[in-house]
């Protein structure tokens, strides 16, 4: 009954039933939300409007200091806090003011309590922003970044309603520019390469100058900081140093491509260096194939690391620093079980204040294998930004390491290892994705606790794609269930899969450049990546002709006694790039869809009384006879031909093959049906229930012209009128296999 009551309470706040059930699975969150709702009902009565319910849910899910729950609920219930910006400001205020009592006057001022923003103020702020950018707006019209106008208005009116600002911007822009013209609907020209370099160079100034770490917001300055920075500059010579630090327990995906581009590109743009450092601290999940695959993908994207390093290179030094932490009273050996350490509201360790000498002896015993797995950990004495207390630095694992063998049975954690390896390698800019922001405090704390050089951690938003999953665990599920073949199945968005599908590395780099680097997480549509692929392949993939569903055509008056050799340009728009030769014989094959006995209006290809041209031959064919089989299906056509310049120009020219090679063609579409297959509100049955059963169509007996006979795996072609295709590694001497990379034009149904 309690669960049913809570479910009813949560849906009464405006949560969907699915969201409410998910919330009930989280014991701590559901208890806090239940308490918040109950307290709000004391003021508002049993009915709570959806806007207030949304704020209460945001409060319950984000508040770490439960002592402040009643205080903040009272402000929400009384409508003094009634917007998301106010709630965010309130949560930040109580986080940064942990001591009692709270200065309510200062709190209300910082949270915009009582501030009323009138429509007239919004109108004035938007008008001022538009006037500042009027010349550029009149030139770029609707290609102008309207978000800039909204951002400037919000900067002036911090507590204004975002929807009201957007509506005002839309109205005033429409008044200034009038309705959209045809030119306004065209895509804005792309400037990917320039933007990448501009982004990388701009980021240097945004983060800091090398050697000026202490100027970075949140950076902790100690009495040793300036001397350590001086020593750092002497070692690096002021050189920018970044690193790409993957875990070798899976294959890189499209999100990693952004990280690779940012870390390597940032260093390159500033004449610096970038390390490739494997975070090999968990031997349980690491495999040799992942190390080599990661190196291959970094090289494939066009980057060469200054040096390939491993966290395990520094295991001895990391252990010595752990001992030093214990000596300084900043770490201790704990015996709480793994399940007791999960979550944020964990019980304080009863061993937190054990004597230093005791922890030193126990840590040595951990190293010598005197504890079972899970029986002892080394924990650091700090509270992280997300409220997690005393993160684990070392744990026991009786698993041989791929590089150190059986030397160690204790392994450091990411929270402990990452910043220390950055310090050892004198990294100047530790660039990582937004989810690591909660670890920034431990990053600074640990370096300063040991009095060693402290780099700066800078976070940026992850790159995700719709219609995709990139989680290692979920890809393993897809492989295990047979939904995909392996990590490199071309329907996935791992880098090995994209390479197999035929995506050029230049296109992936261009896509990352267009996305840019922002703090907000970015979720992009796959067709934007495909557009980058087309841009590259249009200039690099030579043309060939292939027929997927063939129809035999016999030319009864073929103009020669034997086949003719036809010269076909590799790139019709630029014949200086050469030609290839294909045979033209009395028997050719065309696409079955290029012929219709009874064509519908608008059909321009081969039909009775409607001739078509054969591309590149200079000949036009005209239907004379249709040969049908016993079932009535069309088996072949008999046609006559004439020179294209000997009569009226046909309505269409179609591709064809003669004396072709048989090949296999794999046509791919999206693997998932919904944009967000991992979102339970969109796909209640889970991502495995959202599979598109038509995501792969294999044409086993396609025909291709003989110009591709010597093609090797990963060679790319444009099959005229069909799309871009890449040779699959499954190809063998007897038969080529092609993967369709992308269609010639954007198709919203394709991946």
UniProtKB/TrEMBL annotation:
Residues 239-538 form the Glutamyl/glutaminyl-tRNA synthetase class Ib catalytic domain. It comes from the Eukaryota. Coiled coil: none annotated. GO terms for cellular component: aminoacyl-tRNA synthetase multienzyme complex; cytosol. Residues 7-162, 165-230 form the Glutaminyl-tRNA synthetase class Ib non-specific RNA-binding domain. Belongs to the class-I aminoacyl-tRNA synthetase family. This is Glutamine--tRNA ligase.
């Amino acid at each position: 009954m309690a669960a049913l009551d809570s479910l009813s309470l949560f849906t009464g706040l405006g949560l969907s039933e699915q969201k409410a059930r998910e919330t009930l699975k989280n014991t701590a969150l559901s208890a806090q939300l239940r308490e918040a709702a109950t307290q709000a009902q004391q003021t508002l009565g049993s009915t709570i409007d959806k806007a207030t319910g949304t704020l209460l849910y945001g409060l319950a899910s984000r508040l770490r200091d439960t002592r402040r729950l009643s205080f903040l609920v009272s402000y929400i219930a009384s409508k003094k806090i009634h917007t998301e910006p106010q709630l965010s400001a309130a949560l930040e205020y109580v986080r940064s003011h942990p001591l009692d009592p709270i200065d309510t006057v200062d709190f209300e001022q910082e949270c915009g309590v009582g501030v009323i923003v009138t429509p007239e103020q919004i109108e004035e702020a938007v008008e001022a922003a538009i006037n500042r950018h009027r010349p550029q707006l009149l030139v770029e019209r609707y290609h102008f970044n309207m978000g800039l106008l909204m951002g400037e208005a919000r900067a002036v009116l911090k507590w204004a309603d975002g929807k009201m600002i957007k509506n005002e911007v839309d109205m005033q822009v429409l008044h200034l520019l009038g309705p959209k013209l045809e030119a306004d609907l065209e895509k804005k020209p792309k400037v990917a390469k320039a933007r990448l370099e501009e982004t990388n160079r701009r980021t240097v100034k945004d983060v800091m100058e090398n050697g000026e770490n202490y100027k970075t917001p949140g950076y902790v300055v100690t009495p040793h900081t300036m001397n350590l920075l001086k020593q750092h500059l002497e070692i690096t010579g002021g050189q920018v140093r970044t690193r790409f630090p993957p875990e070798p327990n899976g294959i890189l995906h499209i999100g990693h491509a952004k990280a690779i581009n940012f870390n390597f590109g940032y260093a390159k743009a500033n004449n610096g260096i970038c390390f490739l450092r494997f975070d090999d601290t968990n031997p349980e999940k690491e495999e040799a194939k992942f190390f080599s695959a990661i190196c291959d993908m970094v090289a494939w994207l066009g980057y060469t690391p200054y040096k390939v390093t491993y966290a395990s290179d520094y295991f001895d030094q990391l252990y010595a620093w752990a001992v030093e932490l214990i000596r300084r009273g900043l770490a201790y050996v704990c015996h709480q079980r793994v399940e007791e350490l999960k979550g944020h509201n964990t019980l304080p360790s009863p061993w937190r204040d054990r004597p230093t000498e005791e922890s030193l002896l126990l840590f040595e015993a951990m190293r010598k294998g005197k504890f079972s797995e899970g029986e002892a950990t080394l924990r650091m004495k700090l509270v992280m930004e997300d409220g997690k207390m005393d993160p684990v630095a070392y744990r026991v694992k009786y698993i041989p390491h791929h590089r150190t063998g059986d030397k160690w049975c204790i392994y450091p954690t990411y929270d402990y290892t990452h910043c220390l390896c950055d310090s050892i390698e004198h990294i100047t800019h530790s660039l990582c994705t937004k989810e690591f922001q909660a670890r920034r405090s431990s990053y600074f704390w640990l370096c300063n606790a040991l009095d060693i050089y402290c780099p700066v951690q800078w976070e940026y938003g992850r790159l995700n794609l719709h219609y995709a999953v990139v989680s290692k665990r979920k890809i393993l599920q897809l492989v295990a269930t047979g939904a995909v073949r392996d990590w490199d199945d071309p329907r996935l968005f791992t880098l090995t899969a994209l390479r197999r599908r035929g995506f050029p590395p230049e296109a992936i780099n261009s896509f990352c450049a267009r996305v840019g680097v922002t703090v907000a997480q970015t979720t992009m549509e796959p067709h934007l990546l495909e557009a980058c692929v087309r841009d590259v392949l249009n200039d690099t993939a030579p043309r060939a002709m292939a027929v997927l569903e063939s129809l035999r055509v016999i030319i009864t008056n073929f103009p020669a006694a034997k086949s003719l050799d036809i010269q076909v340009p590799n790139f019709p728009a630029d014949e200086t790039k050469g030609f290839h030769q294909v045979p033209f014989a009395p028997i050719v094959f065309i696409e079955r869809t290029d012929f219709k006995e009874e064509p519908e209006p608008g059909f321009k290809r081969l039909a009775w009384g409607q001739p078509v041209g054969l591309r590149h031959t200079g000949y036009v064919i005209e239907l004379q006879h249709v040969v049908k089989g016993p079932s009535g299906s069309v088996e072949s056509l008999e046609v006559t031909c004439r020179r294209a310049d000997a009569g009226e120009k046909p309505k269409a020219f179609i591709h064809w093959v003669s004396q072709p090679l048989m090949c296999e063609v794999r046509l791919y579409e999206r693997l998932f049906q919904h944009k967000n297959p991992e979102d339970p509100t969109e796909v209640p049955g889970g991502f495995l229930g959202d599979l598109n059963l038509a995501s792969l169509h294999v044409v086993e007996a396609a025909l291709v012209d003989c110009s591709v006979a010597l093609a090797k795996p990963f060679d790319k072609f444009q099959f005229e009128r069909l799309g871009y295709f890449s040779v699959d590694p499954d190809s063998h001497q007897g038969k080529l296999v092609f993967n369709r990379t992308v269609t010639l034009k954007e198709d919203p149904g394709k991946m």
